[in-house]
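Before any further analysis, backbone shapes were mapped to integers, which produced the following:

***
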Amino acid sequence: MYAAPQLQDDSAIASPQLLDPTLLKAARLLYRAYKEVHPDGIQRPLGVAIDRFTHRGQLIFTQKPALLLTECFVPFDQLEAGLY
């Protein structure tokens, strides 16, 4: 039996992760659809929780999102970067 190495410091956890381009594209499409349905400039989301396999997602407005095992969080910074 092998054990996975333990992380020694918290800096590795806080570093930005590179996302799969297809996940990023799906998250941007989800956000774009949200903006088309709600053009009044309502509350800005913190990001999108998106499933890695089905590419289904949900906009997140709370500070600490609860993610499922197959989901990842795409922060609004990364969504916004490709829109403009």
